[in-house]
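Translate sequence into structure tokens.
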Amino acid sequence: MDDTLLVRRAIAGDLDSFGQLYDQYFPRVYDFCWRVLRDADEAAETASDVFLAAARGLPQLARAASFRAWLFAIAQRAVLARADRAGRVPLTVTPLHEEAFGSFDVPDPARVADPAVIGGDHELAALVWEVVTSLSPRDLALLDLHLRQGLDSAEIADVIALNRRDAATLVTRMKAAAADVISSYVVARRGSKDCERLQEVVAPFELPPYSDGARRAVDTHIKGCGTCQSLRARLVPPLDVFGAFAAVQAPVALKGDVWSAIAAGWTARPAAAAAFEPAPYAPQAAAGGGIALGGIGGGSAGGVFPPTAAGGWDRRQVLWFGGAVAGLILFAFIVGFAAVQAIGGGNGGGATGVTRTATASRTASPVVSITPGVAVQSATPNLTPSATAVDTETPTPTPTPVPATPTAPPATPTKAAATPTQAAGTPTPSAATPTKTAGVPKPTAPATPKATPTP
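Result follows.
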């Protein structure tokens, strides 16, 4: 079944789908760990850590189609971390697996899956394995992922956290440098039988391992020796031999124990794959005199160096930059919105403002009493317009009462109408209609002069 479909089902919680992925990739991950660490016990622990982390972190996988690269990214980080903690990588394989019915022999690391590749030359396969053990763990891991595990340059880019263009350049240079180192070592071991001068060159060095000093001396000799150049040209491509190495089988008991642990913790899976997040590729020399392909300057490859910043941005840089731009845009939007709100509040909050309307205030003002010598307080409408600040949500003008126009009285003074009065100083509502004496000018609306109290 397609890996993508299995991954999607596993992310949804299907343990059987993850079990199919486990059956397919556990042997390959164990083989990868063994090839880099060359220690069965270390490889077993590392492979266990890788799959336990993968089972817990699977819900965080962004693209189901990238499962293989994601899994080997976890494996690469775990392998390099364990190699760094070990301090050195052993050049020989010594551990044995103790099981109920005895011990298993150490696997043959130089066994090839297809003998036709080497044409029956088993010594060549053994020499190729000898020299790759002298490579740094980082370089050996990259070669194994590409040549033996089948990851292309795009997947390598995901594993080592580079953009695809730089990863493709790095893989090309790495392969050329590795081919140069391996073929040089094979000539140093085999050519000394036919070239006396080469015997003198390699005499001061102990092979293996293939140190930087021995490699430089042999490369210098090959450039000026026709016999050694001819021998080198007739060799089977060394990277083909490396890619043909058979997988190292994982112990059956180990595979079962790891799966039991995965199944037990399947229902509660916190994201833990970040503990093995792939780090940017940085070639470095291995402890104990290993060769770092990034430091090779001679030969046809001319060395392999990590891409510079001018070579392009990797995926993480692009994501960080995009996140920063989005954050700035969001910050500017928030600041602008707050400024608009502040300005709107100063102008009345946008919807609510201070409006000024002409309202008529009713005050109790003294008026002239119709009874001589008595002042009567009457609630008389004061029709003088006044500008009063009134906070309203909707500007609604207050209607101003307009006084009725008094009817002109007869020319002769009229007798005051009977109006209930009270003692002076006691206000009383006036219900009678005020009368007007002759000679009083006609009032005009809307303003009415206030009457002054008569002592």
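Note: The longest helix spans residues 315-346.
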